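Problem 12. The chain below contains 489 residues. Write out its predicted structure in token notation.
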Amino acid sequence: MQTATIIALAAYFILMLAIGLFAWRKSTEDSEGYLLGGRNLHPAVAALSAGASDMSGWLLLGLPGALYASGLIEAWIGIGLFVGAVANWFIVAPRLRKQTVEYGNALTIPQFLANRFPDRATALRVVSAIIIVIFFAVYSAAGLVGGGLLFESSFFDGEMMGMTPYMAGVLLTALVVLAYTMVGGFLAVSLTDFVQGCIMVVALVLMPLVVLFGQPSGTFDGALANVDPDFLNWTNGLTVIGFLSLVSWGLGYFGQPHIIVRFMAVREGGIPMARTIGLSWMFVALVGALGVGLAGRAYVEANGLALDNPETIFILLANTLFHPFVTGFLLAALLAAIMSTISSQLLVSSSSLTEDFYHLFLKKQASERELVTVGRVSVALVAVAAIVIASDPESGVLALVANAWAGFGAAFGPLIILSLTWKRMTGAGAVAGLVTGAAVVMAWIALGWNGAFLGGPGVYEIIPGFVAAWLAIWGVSLVTQQKKPIFAA
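Solution.
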């Protein structure tokens, strides 16, 4: 690797650690500070933090890779995600910010659910915390796989301290994220997310433009002539089930704890501004990711290059087209996408282990300082589990993200929406929806029905999981409810 690239990456790592130290001095004295930044995030910070923690390495690896391999048909994932994000900001964000304060100043999603349904408080906290820790271990592993692929493709050849480049990348990514997350808590994660979100969107705008306009005239004409004409067809071979499986990614937004927790932390009255900033950022980022995949395919075809793993197209373009210092910036953008999500997921997992296990069962009288310490230890424990899962270099970023995204979307999506909007929902219904959504998703994956279903194409597991959870909540609540007004004000 060029010296200039190493310097750029080193500067990025130092900046992340410096932000962690700043946050450590500002907001780690008590649980509310460590887990929610004191509920005083600036709208811009909350918006970009939600976006950066949402998009992860799949935005620069998985989605461009899918476009590179399969063509414009994969853009329906991005469309579904954007529609889901719009609905999430309008339906969930303002209500969750208000109601988590009203229901006992809840610091975590499980705690909010327990306060909302006190008759099933313990069951909701335990079950939801278990789901959070399990799926976030998988989700965090997806980010670490991205770090491993980055090292394997760009950083060095041969072994380093007895490890493969892939495993060295996994461990270094995990260690840097652990450093600033454990030290600075939620404020560190949110501030680093803000910086990382800015870096990501600049990189995603810059790269497609350079690919498209930095080549000799006519370079892409010959390349496109050799590409299957269906590559740029939005609907080629698209079945109804295939379409629903792609756009249904948007359903996942309602149940992603690492995203919706930003709604809880934004300062009072800041949701409208955060919504505008967040959705604008997301639109530009998604268009840029689609551009990387499509323009990257044309570039590879035009220059006769070989690309074994489509999910590394961003890395190939960064290493091929730019000055080493700019390459360092672009690779830092990839690390930013990876690290922003991992840090958010580790912190949410930590908050559940701390508040919904340790504080609830082991030591109810624990001091605030002790809870912060337990939170830091919990971050490390979940990170170790993610490293173990990510140790398989054959893991696919998009596949791991898809499984975890579906698990959260089905388990928590209907639960969050209805708990915020339907007064007749009961605690028994909440537990039924939580368990049903998670169980259906895991069973669907285990049976392989997300790959092939009834002799046809697979059905994305979030669809049956989301529908089953919604019906479970509705049915059980109607059976167990008492007479109450139907909808929340």
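Discussion. The first strand starts at residue 452 and ends at 453. Students who got a different answer should revisit the alignment rule from Section 12.3.
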